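haha ok so turns out i had the wrong file open the whole time. this is the CORRECT one, sorry everyone. sequence first:
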Amino acid sequence: MSWQFVVSMPRPRELTMVERNPENLYVERARALGVHVLIGDVLDTNVLRKVNLHAARHLVTFSGNDGTNVELAIKARNYMSTDPTSRQLRVHLHINDTRISAQLEEYAKFFDDSSAASIDFFSVYDLNARILMHEYPPERFAEVFGQDEVPIALYSSGALQNTCCLRRWATATLPISRKYTSRSSTRARTAHRRA
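then structure:
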């Protein structure tokens, strides 16, 4: 996911990436694109110093672990508050499980002091689900095929599938008399395993 972010960034932008694993195959690819890559633990204050976080405008967290991302956001905010001459940092906190971001939004202490850093939440899975449901609304297919019921089959597993289902249920606009179903790909996965 962070690799997709790196390649989608418009150039010229100064971009620094911190990677814990020096054997990661994307390290050299990122460097070839002009990205500064530091090897280390992003939660280490010395690494924050090396990336010159005080001069940064944005910090995007893509560790793949919600707990690490939240910890990094708090640590970055605290680190930024140590230098009153720093500009405000915008932390874009990726959360896989959007329920966590909903809980944090209700936790006032998380947003007590935004003078050093403001924190925003996002989920690539939620964004993709919104785009998918907007571009391919099931109602369109029901109307085209003259059906009252539209099965939704998602042939994947994980966060995107779950978010698509939740997004669909949350944005259902059809009358209650119409029954829409969501079916997982259990049968397809089982058939694939047997083959």
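The beta strands are 16-19, 36-39, 58-61, 89-94, 117-122, 151-154, 181-184.
again sry for the mixup
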